[in-house]
Amino acid sequence: MSDAAIASSSGGFGTGARAVWDVVLPVVVVVAVIIGAWYVACVPMNIKEALTQAERAGAVVEPAGAKERRDMSAVGLALANSAYARDTLNQERPRLPAPHQVGQELWNTTGGMVLNGKAFSKRSLIYHGWVTLSATVLGFAIGTVAGVGLAIGIVHSRVMNMAVMPWAIASQTIPILAIAPMIIVVLNSIGVTGLLPKALISAYLSFFPVAVGMVKGLRSPDNMQLDLLSTYSASQSETFWKLRLPSSMPYFFTSMKIGMAASLVGAIVGELPTGAVRGLGARLLAGSYYGQTVQIWAALFAAAILAAVLVGVIGLLQRMTLKKMGMVH
Amino acid sequence: ADEVTLQLKWVTQAQFAGYYVAADKGFYEEEGLDVTIKPGGPDIAPAQVIAGGGADVVLDWMPSALASREKGLPLVNIAQPFKSSGMMLTCWKDTGIEKPEDLKGKTIGVWFFGNEYPFLSWMSSLGISTEGGDDGVTVLKQGFNVDPLLQRQADCISTMTYNEYWQVIDAGVTPEELITFKYEDMGVATLEDGMYVMEENLADPAFEDKMVRFVKASMKGWKYAEENPDEAAMIVLDNDETGAQTETHQKRMMGEIAKLTAGSNGALDEADYTRTVETLLGGGSDPVITIQPEGAWTHQITDKALN
Amino acid sequence: MDFEWLLGGFASLLAISYVNLQVANGGGRDQAITRLFVPVFFGIGLLILWEALVQGLGVPGVILPAPSAIWDRFTASTNILWVDFVQTFVKGALSGYVMGAIAAFAVALLVDRSDFLRRGLLPVGNFMAALPIIGIAPILVMWFGFDWQSKAAVVVVMVFFPILVNTVEGLRATERMQRDLMKTYAASYWQTLFKLRVPAATPFVFNGLKIATTLALIGAIVAEFFGSPIKGMGFRISTEVGRLALDMVWAEILVAAIAGSAFYGLVALIERRVTFWHPSQRRGR
Amino acid sequence: MAPLDEERMNGVAQDPVIVAEKLDLTFQTNDGAVQALRDVNLTINKGDFVSFIGPSGCGKTTFLRVAAALEHPTGGTLSVNGMTPDEARQQRAYGYVFQAAGLYPWRTIAKNIKLPLEIMGYSKESQQEHLERVLKLVDLEGFGEKFPWQLSGGMQQRASIARALAFDADILLMDEPFGALDEIVRDHLNEQLLALWERTGKTIGFVTHSIPEAVYLSTRIVVMSPRPGRITDVIESTLPRERPLDIRDTPEFLEIAHRVREGLRAGHAYDD
Amino acid sequence: MAPLDEERMNGVAQDPVIVAEKLDLTFQTNDGAVQALRDVNLTINKGDFVSFIGPSGCGKTTFLRVAAALEHPTGGTLSVNGMTPDEARQQRAYGYVFQAAGLYPWRTIAKNIKLPLEIMGYSKESQQEHLERVLKLVDLEGFGEKFPWQLSGGMQQRASIARALAFDADILLMDEPFGALDEIVRDHLNEQLLALWERTGKTIGFVTHSIPEAVYLSTRIVVMSPRPGRITDVIESTLPRERPLDIRDTPEFLEIAHRVREGLRAGHAYDD
Ligand SMILES: Nc1ncnc2c1ncn2[C@@H]1O[C@H](COP(=O)(O)OP(=O)(O)OP(=O)(O)O)[C@@H](O)[C@H]1O
Ligand SMILES: Nc1ncnc2c1ncn2[C@@H]1O[C@H](COP(=O)(O)OP(=O)(O)OP(=O)(O)O)[C@@H](O)[C@H]1O
Ligand SMILES: Cc1ncc(C[n+]2csc(CCO)c2C)c(N)n1
Ligand SMILES: [Mg+2]
Ligand SMILES: [Mg+2]
After folding, report:
1. Whose CA is closest to atom 9 on ligand 3?
2. Terminus of chain E with fewer CB atoms < 10 Å: N or C?
3. Where does A125-324 sit in CATH, by number?
4. How far is the CA of D58 from the centre of ligand 1 (A)?
5. Residue pLDDT, tens place only, C79-101
6. What is the domain extent for residue E120?
7. Angle at the Cα of A259 (from A257 to A262), degrees rounded to 5?
8. Atom of ligand 3 at shortest distance to CA of B163?
9. What ipTM was predicted for this assembly?
10. Which of A72, A290, A293 best tests the B interface by mutation, with the highest count of B CBs <10 A?
């Protein structure tokens, strides 16, 4: 809505080139600035390790002794030993890996694997991403159905609204990472294994935003719109299908986007207590065991890219649906 | 074939080579077993998994298993392939630490999640408080890696001889920069990586028979791994689904592990057990276990398996 | 299996649901006391069912303790729970929440001033918001140390983007006529900001602030899984799971649920006070 | 005088459709109670065209809403065809035009107009038939496939009138339906409405702010005064049923308009 | 005839305030361009009261918006006091009443009315003074502390008029300000507005759908026709400046009203 208003007030040039210019250029500039700042930050972040390495190799650094340097300011050290700035950008286990290191690792574990025909080998992020994706999507589906169902109940029943809503909020204050192992164990003990336990954790995280958004959406019709149907003596189900559901669509898609992102987090969390053998969560953790910061960062970015793609797909669906419904102008 | 599920204590690595070798070389199959090996991880308590019915047999450290037993979960040790403990404390030498008493006033990273018992017992036997201050040590719950040491957030961290210690070395630290305290050398070693099952199951002859075959095959696997460390490491690598393990690290780990399993035929040595219990009971004001455990181990399986 | 327990459990849940139905649809249905009574009563029903399931099915305490056992542990360990609460909630979550919120407002104002920045930063921000905390937490623990500072940093990262995105959206949520009115007065940027756009943005801002409350607590707890001093709710949970002291784990979860709900409720209350004028806050008319 | 008028009407053996007796309605709001209607007595007979006129906030809308069972009286009774308004609604007795257009934005104009028909279970063909008839009536042929936001405010208002006329409700309740229209369109729709009313014999309740409009359309004009809303005058029209537009220049018309204006003015506080 | 009229006006040596020359405005929308204004030529002199009348969607609002620099022409020019509208706005030349009330819901009525005064840096006391004066003018004394959503639509509209009158803008642009009001209040406010205009000599642009209102208030009436919006007639009022309400019954008044109606009708397609 506000988008439309902005678009029309800015004069309404709509040519493709202009749109690309407006959308892509700012992002490119911002990303470039971030990468620049990132490189700069690498120097103080990694300088202590660089100096220690150099000292082990026999160089004389100022001041000598890792213990002495421990409590010194990193920026000060970087300035005093600017000769070692380069060494901060290519360490094996940096505190902050340089952008090109992350990019290289990402490429080596995705595109590079594809070129070698090993796209689905266990060292490939495509393989691990795929594992996480399947749990994410299944959990998202369960969570969305549950969230929508709960929202329908809440909107149509006073008791549900009063009794369940506070508990739905409370349920989200429980740290999922704490109860994930218990969920897995309990489900295991009743014979549920495989994809489903992970998906249920995803669902636990994604049902809430969907439910909250849908409650808002299903309640979004104003009094007049509801009164109109009253004068027709429309039934509850007619009111639902002809008024509440259509007017909740914008909310539905927005909350699905949040739900999808939450679902991905859930799938990753769910991977830890299942042995963390496959999936992006397992990669994150494995990177963490062995202090492979570059690997952590690569897995992190892979997860974020996956989330962006999933959310983008929902955004696409949203545009198509709302356009068909005449709700985007 | 009879199905057996084994829950490991940690992720797939050479620490568990014997089981992977037994599976890979068909030793289990020969015994008519169909074994599923479930990797562990930071969020997995083997005792909880077996209580929930998620495994038939689990690998655990004895302090944790005995503590669970006191909590009312009747775990029984049926075999003990690890003779000695691989746990140690690794410190920076330049912090001035030379002997255990020097730990006072220092910051120390410790694994929790049931793995803190040996450390706590050791400190209480030294009479060092873990509440911080000049006369005590400041304890940190260390994460899964050796960063706290490398970043000098801690003066010492817990390491295993076969794993974390080498990660420190791989990070470019020379052994001369470090000083280590092995629990074995300190006389506070506790038993690690034993096989545990639920007590009530042992009464079931079918289960007993299954375990006999399992232990037999597993020990065969262990011995094979000790003799062919490089091959064993490669088998472990093949079974690592995360794709994060490296060949060098696993081969070296296998070498270290072989030192720990050497001297055990799989049967629990009662003397080791007694020493472990003594250490845990002697934990000063807050001992890990409070009463002498009864029936926490048995030779019922190994007697049949190893003869 | 103990059928008496199970039967009793389901029967009392049914009875409670029935009473709730009567109360919720009866007279006085809009009174504050009803609003409190119904959910509490429902919660009690759930607890009874939980207790009945655990007792009736003989679920071992190392898998899922009964509410009565959790309550016993809770009352017996209040001092530990308090120490943990202060460490995680007050030092970690609250301070991170405040810092994150302030930073988000500041950046939102900056982003809002320049259309270019908004177009550039928001997509990147959305991307960064999708970075899973499980990956971020170990990194931040490595950077900021084991104490509460690293937990606060995780919380800052977690709450920053929801508040930022909502605030930016809110600042744009004025109607054309409202903006045109300001234009006819030739109002300056700051006048328009403080007299129109900030007030109009408050409902959105609170939306973000509310989402952020639950995120803050979860963030602080989860971060402790990746390294901490030997106190804190996350530390206790992860340690006691390994010790099979599940009653303690649930006592901490209880604290988390109470603290999180109270925090959420507090922000919601402030929201009611501040955005009383918004249609969603008006009852009746 | 109002009670007198009514008594007289009730005496005549006509067919009462809406009967309000001692109607009271008080809204409970955060800052206290608002009495919107007080002691309203009114009978609307079958085939009547009753206009409601009165200052803003006097309860015109509230009265229509009570009649349509959208609001429930806190005192007194209102019956519709001898039933409660709720029962009458069950029988789909009402066509209601709201003060604002209130079209559903996700439905095209045609689908908006078909909405009541769908709910009332008309067949597809008969829906299309009704649609075409009313689109013509309000002069919106060719706009069926547009979405509401693609039309100007006046066109939207006409579409909402079409929606209320699409099905054959016996009672038509219209809340300032022509407020957003310019005079020419308004005149046109006034004529159309009168023609429809004559042809179908519907009972119509009509809220307006325009005195000429009220006089031109109605058989009876109800003048209300605010806070709390009361009926201060009920004026019978002496105009013939057949009403060309230029009837508005006749002395009879102006006489009635004058009476309405006086009634209205009495409810205001201006001393000029 | 319109161009002729205008030519004549421009000839007279008056003080032009708003001068539109060959004004064109085309909106670019997703489904194509909408030409809202085409070749509009108009001069509004100081102290004029100019009404705009025309069917819905003909560009009345758009013209006012261009005059207030809320919209920028795509062709031709419009100047205000010899400046661009943007410059005039910087000098706070405008009081604008929008078609809908547009009060800020988080401010009380009093604070809403004070809003322009705060922005223009009036002192606290003088704010209070102005507030009380205009509250009285629109008959809302005692409602200052209510919030907008606690008032009926008509009262909100009056508050928004008060807001525009609170500061002394030379040019008052009013877009159907009295649309939501009943006839009596409307008459009253019409009188008040005329009195204010006479007293202050403001220049007023006024959009309305009511022919009598336009005739009663204006010195000049601009009749527009839709798609694209053009001026089809400009009618000079021959009524005296002093206008009691009953001037509306004089033949002169009815004659002008008739001319406006004819001009309006010419822009419509009805053949009745
Ligand atoms: N839902 C409500 N809650 C509280 N007060 C209400 C409600 N609806 C109407 N009122 C009040 O009741 C009175 C009558 O309102 P109503 O809408 O019937 O007036 P009206 O005659 O239709 O006015 P208008 O000409 O402005 O439409 C007003 O004072 C109004 O403020
Ligand atoms: N922002 C906009 N974008 C696109 N088209 C617009 C916009 N604003 C107005 N229009 C179109 O310009 C034309 C003139 O609109 P305007 O609002 O000036 O009409 P109006 O004479 O004020 O009508 P009304 O009496 O209904 O208020 C209409 O066809 C309208 O649809
Ligand atoms: C959370 C957690 N932290 C530490 C350990 C301890 N541990 C037991 S075996 C093993 C392998 C050594 O390479 C390690 C680290 C654990 N189990 N869980
Ligand atoms: Mg009304
Ligand atoms: Mg307009």
Report:
1. B10
2. C
3. 1.10.3720.10
4. 7
5. 999 999 999 999 999 999 999 99
6. 101-168
7. 115
8. 13
9. 0.83
10. A290
